């Protein structure tokens, strides 16, 4: 299970700490609704097996509170960003798959002419009607150039993308394609013709990457907490 404290699990799920404590001690048998709330809060869903939910609903739940909170409330909510990011790992999101940036069919060139960089992939995705949306540090910096260890790009249907290599070769530059949800569209902005998720969504995606990308996102959380502590908007 996720490394959540009892307080964090109670806060996210809406189940009281005392009830969770009794469930853990075997003093209470939780009903289906309570168990479902606890599992969803931890990023899981129940079927025949216990699996990752792949949902981004928890991100929306946090951001809805963050955007209406005052400066002190935002600072308190920032303390929960890492927990929520870890509960929504990018690798488990709907349609999530690697794509090599070294081998891409440039839509401006004849078939068989391959190149490799992030802007070229974005152009290719646009030409296929995939409406790419950038996340991670590229969204924070509002740039089409590759700035993160591996960019996160939301698209309409990752499985329908052509002209790319979906392998994951060691040492190769790569990005992560993820299916665009209605939640993602809700938190998308357009700057100079390029789509980006909001800054806060980008931070949570970085935290959900659970690699060196998360270090950058954590630093951004710390910077925002400092600014809020000084009474500055963040």
What's this model, at a glance?
The protein is an alpha+beta fold and 234 residues long.
Describe this structure in words.
The chain has 234 residues and is of the alpha+beta class. The protein has two domains: 1-53, 434 Repressor (Amino-terminal Domain) (Orthogonal Bundle); 91-213, no CATH class. The protein is built from eleven helices and ten strands. Strands 3, 4, 5, 6, 7, 8, 9 and 10 form an eight-stranded mixed β-sheet that branches. Strands 1-2 form a two-stranded antiparallel sheet. Helix 1 crosses helix 3 and helix 4 (57-68) packs antiparallel against helix 5. The protein is globular. The two termini are 32 Å apart.
Secondary-structure-based class equals: alpha+beta
Distance between the ends: 32 Å
Number of strands: 10
Low-confidence stretches: 110-114
Largest sheet: 8 strands, mixed
Helix content: 40-55%
- Rounded mean pLDDT score: 84
Overall number of domains: 2
- The 3D shape can be described as globular
Using only C-alpha atoms, the radius of gyration works out to: 19 Å
H/I helix tally: 11
Strand-residue proportion: 15-25%
The succession of helices and strands, N to C, reads: HHHEEHHHEEHEHEEEHEEHH
């Amino acid at each position: 299970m996720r490394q959540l404290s009892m307080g964090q699990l109670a806060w996210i799920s809406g189940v009281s700490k005392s009830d969770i404590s009794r469930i853990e001690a075997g003093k209470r048998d939780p009903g289906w609704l309570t168990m479902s709330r606890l599992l969803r809060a931890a990023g899981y869903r129940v079927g025949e097996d216990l699996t990752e939910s792949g949902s981004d609903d928890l991100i929306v739940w946090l951001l809805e509170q963050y955007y209406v909170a005052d400066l002190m409330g935002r600072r308190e909510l920032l303390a929960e960003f890492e927990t929520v990011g870890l509960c929504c790992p990018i690798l488990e999101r709907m349609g999530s798959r690697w794509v090599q940036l070294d081998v891409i069919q440039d839509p401006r060139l004849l078939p068989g002419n391959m190149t490799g960089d992030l802007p070229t992939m974005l152009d290719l995705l646009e030409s296929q009607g995939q409406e790419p949306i950038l996340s991670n540090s590229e969204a924070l910096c509002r740039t089409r150039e590759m700035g993160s260890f591996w960019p996160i790009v939301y698209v309409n249907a990752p499985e329908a993308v052509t002209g790319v290599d979906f392998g994951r070769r060691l040492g190769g530059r790569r990005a992560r394609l993820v299916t665009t949800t209605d939640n993602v569209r809700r938190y998308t902005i357009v700057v100079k013709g390029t789509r980006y998720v909001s800054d806060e969504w980008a931070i949570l995606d970085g935290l959900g990457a659970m690699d060196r990308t998360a270090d950058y996102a954590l630093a951004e959380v710390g910077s925002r907490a400092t600014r809020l502590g000084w009474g500055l908007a963040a």
